[in-house]
UniProtKB/TrEMBL annotation:
Heme binds at residues 50, 74. CDD domains: TrHb2_O-like (cd14775). GO terms for molecular function: heme binding; metal ion binding; oxygen binding. Keywords: Heme, Iron, Metal-binding, Transport. This is Hemoglobin. The lineage of its organism: Bacteria, Pseudomonadati, Pseudomonadota, Betaproteobacteria, Burkholderiales. InterPro entries: Globin-like_sf, Globin/Proto, Hemoglobin_trunc. It comes from the Bacteria.
Length: 159
């Protein structure tokens, strides 16, 4: 049996309006958080909207982040030399999921599994890219996340 017309994660969550509500409320919580507040102390007022547009593109919505801000390389640059910790990463993911619950976002197992998968993957990359010596691949494509993206570890084939 083939399922027809499966919506993107972007459509399932409710589009940019929902993502803007999420990031706006989330970053209010972040500012008040003892662990994360200092990390985002110099965050501009437009930061939540930028993150909403980024998440929208990743989750299958319009390519607005790539068109307006420079895609994934631009996002990576925002994390360079920030020296993020695993504790901060875990708190960031947890607080975002708590905010999603607070706002009554979709909580079906399939959507939340996909969302958690992306947040774990993306936040772990952010930590890696925030450490000394990290660099930006200017040709990196924008991540695209769907209903089942985990493919297994990257293994270099033996010659």
């Amino acid at each position: 049996m083939t399922i027809q017309n499966v919506p993107s994660l972007y459509d399932w969550v409710g589009g940019i309006e929902t993502l803007n509500r999420l990031t706006t409320r989330f970053y209010l919580h972040v500012k008040a958080d003892a662990l994360l507040g200092p990390v985002f102390a110099h965050m501009g007022a437009d930061h939540p909207a930028h993150v909403a547009v980024f998440l929208g593109e990743v989750l299958g919505g319009p390519a607005a982040y790539s068109e307006q801000y420079g895609g994934h390389p631009h996002m990576v640059k925002q994390h360079l030399n920030r020296h993020l910790t695993q504790e901060q990463r875990r708190r960031w993911v947890g607080l975002l999921l708590e905010t999603a619950d607070e706002l009554g976002m979709p909580d079906d197992p399939e959507f939340r599994s996909a969302l958690v998968g992306y947040l774990e993957w993306g936040s772990r990359l952010a930590v890696i890219n925030s450490q000394a010596g990290a660099s930006v691949d200017e040709n990196a494509s924008m991540p695209k996340w769907g209903w089942g993206e985990v493919k297994g570890p990257y293994i270099i084939p033996k010659e």
